[in-house]
Amino acid sequence: MNDIILHHYEFSTFSEKVRTALGLKGLAWRSVEIPGLPPRPLLSPELTGGYRRAPIMQIGADIYCDTNIILPTLERLHPVPSLYPNGSEGLARALAFAWERQMWIPSISVLTHYIGEHIPPEFLKDRKESYLGIDISKEAMAPRFDQDVQAVRAQLAWLRQALSGRRFLFGDAPGAADLACWQTIYLLRKNCPPEVDALLGLAPLTGWYDRIVALGHGSPTPMTSEEAFAVARDARPAPVTHLDADGDPGGLRAGCPVRITPDDNARVPVAGTLVAAGDQEIVIHRRDAQAGDLHLHFPRIGFVVEAV
């Protein structure tokens, strides 16, 4: 089996979610550090077909886009210890998607209230024009701050209740649901002054928070973008045996051209030929002039899939 390669950047909390999942599973992996902003030579568009969000997981010539397909893939390939303890996969996947959608912009609002003046202008420009589609500068976010604090506190209230008397959300073992909820809190506790704990009522969650930090990041070793690209170029995509080639719930068939686009932000379409699909995953084939044949894997949730 080819090495797990993670293309990520240090201050990406979605990258931290995957790094910590690798720690939970105790896995060795290759670490390719990418810029927080494009351009990202040899990654996009070469390996990803234009998809620009991070992190990206690469295994040989298979490219996994979005944490909602990266974590289930890690589970499929390395099932022990599980990211879905006590039969929690369905609930964990639903919770992760809902939590991250609801919490992301309000969490950014709290973040910019505290450190907005330190966010580089080029980052703000990219997030407004090419990524989120909204202005996340301190000045622009200020009018919604009070409402966003209320939104974050309301979400944290049920999280505190769910964790009362428990080490983790589904019992004594950590899992993907914990990582999804934790990563937005990590964004704030890592970057904001300590008073953010009082503002949001985080004190009852700090034991749980610290237990997840203690999972670590597994065993990463550095890798260059050039080395990762060479791995993809010299490999062939793995056969897709876990999905039905004609099992798409929308009626798409293997071999048809499709376009896949995130439905929330960074809406850059990726075009390819359908390899296989199910109700939770879609795999397309792309041939890049330099990298050769690639399989790109996406979750169905959060993406628009269209025949072209």
TrEMBL record:
Q: Which SUPFAM superfamilies match?
A: GST C-terminal domain-like (SSF47616), Thioredoxin-like (SSF52833)
Q: Which parts of the chain are coiled coil?
A: none
- The segment(s) forming the GST N-terminal domain are 2-82
Q: What is this protein called?
A: Glutathione S-transferase family protein
Source species, please?
Variovorax ureilyticus
